[in-house]
Amino acid sequence: MYRLRTQTDFDAAHHLEDYEGKCARLHGHLWVVEVFVLGKELDKAGILVDFGVIKTALNEITDGRLDHRNLNDIEEIGNPTCENVARYIFSSLKPSIPKEVSLEKVRVWETPRSWGEYFE
């Protein structure tokens, strides 16, 4: 079994709903996103899947939908916790993953020391 990982980031604001604490106020993060894919077979060049394919699909989500936005304005995310952002990216990315590999998980870093991930 082979595993590949790629990473990107985006800047966005959010506030947590139904939460008591400073994160209930509007604030921003440099969100770091890691995507992990798994597969059993390499192609004739010895590649599981071209990193560019994953990066292009991921950047359509992060750059196109999330970057420099207030995540509370994106209904599909729900309450924009780190966990829900990871689920949203996973669900949005999954249809774009080539059939030769499976999307294992999406990990989202909210700070350099705190992350959440989503997998099925």
What does this structure look like?
The protein has about 120 residues and is of the alpha+beta class. The protein has a single domain, classed as 2-Layer Sandwich (Tetrahydropterin Synthase, Chain A), CATH 3.30.479.10. The chain is about 25% helix and about 35% strand. It is built from two helices and five strands; from the N terminus they run ββαβαββ. The chain has helices spanning about 50-65, 80-95, and strands at about 1-15, 25-40, 70, 100-110, 115-120. A five-stranded mixed β-sheet has the order 3-1-2-4-5. β4 (about 100-110) and β5 (about 115-120) form a beta hairpin. The chain is elongated and about 55 Å long. The mean pLDDT is about 95.
Please tag this protein with its features.
single chain, 120 residues, alpha+beta, Tetrahydropterin Synthase, Chain A, five-stranded mixed β-sheet, 2 helices, elongated
